[in-house]
Amino acid sequence: MQVNANTAGYSSAVISGDPLAGRDGELATIRRALSGGNKSGVVIVGAAGVGKTRLAREVLHLAERAGERTSWIVGTESAKALPLGAFTALINDAGVDPWPNIRHLIKSFVAQQRQGRMLIGVDDAHLLDGLSAHVVHQLAQSRATRLLVTLRAGAEEPDAITALWKDGLLARLDLAPLSVDATRAMIEEALGGAVDARSARRFWNLTGGNALFLRQLVQDQIDAGRMRLTAGVWMWDDDVAVSQSISDMVGRQVRGLTPEIALVVDTLSQCEPLAVDVLCDLVDRADLETAEQMRLVTVERSGGELAARLAHPLFGELRRASAGEMYLSKIRGRLAERLAKDPDADMQATVRRGLLALESDLPPDGQLFLQSAQHAMTLLDLDLADRFATAAAEAGVPEAAEVRALNLLLLGRGEQTEEVLREISSSGGEGARQWSTLRATNLIWMLGRLTDAAAVLDDLAGGPEAPADRFARLAVEACVDAASARCATAADKAREALDSGQLSDFHAMMASVALTMALGALGRADALTPVAESALERAMTSFQASHMRFWYASVYARACRLTGHIDECVAMAQRLAGSAHEVPSLAYANLASLLGGAELMRGDVRAAVQLLHEALAGVEKHGVTTGLRPATCFALAEAHAKLGEAEAAKEAITEAQCSVPPGFLFMQTAHSIATGWAQVANGCVADAVATVLDAAAQARDRDQPTHELWCLQVAAQWGDASRAARARELADELDLPLADAVARHAESLAAGDGERLLLAADDYRAIGDRAAAADAAAQAAVAFTGGQQRKRGLYAAAVAKELSDACGGLCTPALRAPASQPLTGRQREIVEFVVAGLSNREIATRLVMSVRSVEGHIYRACQRVGANSREELAAIARRGPGS
After folding, report:
1. What is the largest distance, in Å, between two alpha-carbon atoms of the chain?
2. Which domains are assigned to the chain?
3. Of 91, 116, 438, 576, which has the fewest Cβ atoms less than 10 A away?
4. How many angstroms separate the CA atoms of 616 and 635, rounded?
């Protein structure tokens, strides 16, 4: 694969070769069947384009690499009319009597088998002539050679080929289309990089998992610039580009249609599925029946009603690409008018009808567009909602401007939202005060201007206000206080606003965000769950709050992390992931960040990295300026650092530092911890400890006890137990299982008590933090070994290794510490720099010591762990306990 990226950030790629991905299970099944047993081989059966030939070729390629002999036979339409047509190249005389040739072929293959293992591949066996099929059958029956046969499902094959599996000569493998996961794996293999989950599912939906169609469709999108590389992730959010190649593959059935049949296909291409009764009001029923017989359309019974859809998703794309816009606009208008005659079944139906009307030749329907905008917001599609709200405003609907302003805020278009809201709130008209609080919200969360937001709210407080207006102001003021780390004040204001029962859905979500941030920081875990349940229930049903479900959930997730409720966080994230049928692009960035953070908390670090990179790509694509960018980068820095990926961790924290809003003191703890993890990955453990202990002191000054606890926990994971007494004070104050675990961890680390370190590991594991458990177990292994308890040390090292593997292979300071011969503090520090790739001179400069001293420490460290070189020392350190 070749990838070229220009300075504008657009990327193009050429898919070269024919990658096999997503077929590991089938490949293993075939290889097992060929390696022994009572079968002579395998018949691979599947639809055209599903990947039968590619899979068979891969098996033969692997056999050749293993030193086996192979032969490849292909059945074709042109050779089908010739006796032994598939074997023409292997026979000398195609005379009148074919039987000598048959005997010659069989003896030849058998003789080759005697000279060494041989595998014969027979491709498209349904196209073999009768005698060629007989040769294949005889070879299978003789069991003198092994066969791998491909066969198209539903084709009329010779009886001799059918007998291969019916008579038990060959095992049969029905090759299904690629799954969603296999589709993603194949795309990533072809492009040599990550692809986001939404794009992979879209390719799967359009191709049905057909490998042939998939390869071509991916190449088409790249060639047309519709699929781009953003922040290291391939994303496809644009329309479908249809090339001549894909048209030749799929489009033969939709060419040369009569106008009547074309109308059936084109109507469904604009809106499917459609009830047959509805469709037949727009097309002739006889034409629909003909389209079904031509396998252009499928008609299925759902409940008591027949529904029609296109037989292949690409049919609609092909027709849309070739039909004229005026023609399609007319079809969309007729569809919108017909659908309006019946009540909409749900919000999706209203949005679908609204979009048909918006893109038709009908006069604008402002009320329909406004309703569709609100429903699209509930369904998380803010880009579509903006189109509807703009159209409603242009149609003269008064409420449309305010809906659009709220939608712009949720889209993260801070400057544009500020311009619109400043004008609305300064107009003095009805609802101006409410829109001033919306403006303040935008200043806080989208633009990071806390001082300006506070000024807007102070102006509101200085004037007369109704009770409902006051509570709305308090809800937003609580956000200013929470972001400024005034947690107790934020909690009081947010609670008062929520208890009033007079908040709009939007302002209730703002109060919930502030209250959750404050409760998490104060350690009031028992009060978190009811707040979260109420907020998420509201977000599922309200157009004002719907898009905030993932944002709020991320706030709640951080509170769960601070209070040690990791299992609850993971359950909530998974629940939200299933709360919408499809998650549009911007909403998916929020969801991916939430899911990635949850995976990081529970220790599935590699899964976290994949999701977080998808989130960052979405942030980049949409130009998001909210806290989503730094929060995602914080998590990425930690995840990469835990895997020992120093440069990636450094890049993530550099990105975060450029996007943390000034004055957002609440983010300082997460920022400091992420910075510390990046420092650890780059060998600067002492600097990392100093960073988080300074953050702990600041959190204590701001009365953020769980923030302080978090800092002490990571310091202990990095080997620092200097704050053990303070950790115990926090445990007594907070009454949280997490606080008890951190206190036990720090105390037992200070005492070098391996048994209590193992208990701390169990505590962390019970909470759901497997990565912290792995670190504590690794430290227990070192403590046991230092105390001459070799067997307990080996046991603790095995526990650490098991936990590390479950997390994706951790490479933290604790897990890099060899358990066999514990290093001194200075040796440990220097080894960390060696692992990070620093030269002896660079280490000496960092530690203000001579190069000779550094060399001496490295020499003694090598003696302790049995390493023969600097490189081997680094390798042993990366493997960690149990290595």
Report:
1. 108
2. 24-174 (3.40.50.300), 180-241 (no CATH), 251-395 (1.10.10.10), 816-882 (1.10.10.10)
3. 116
4. 11
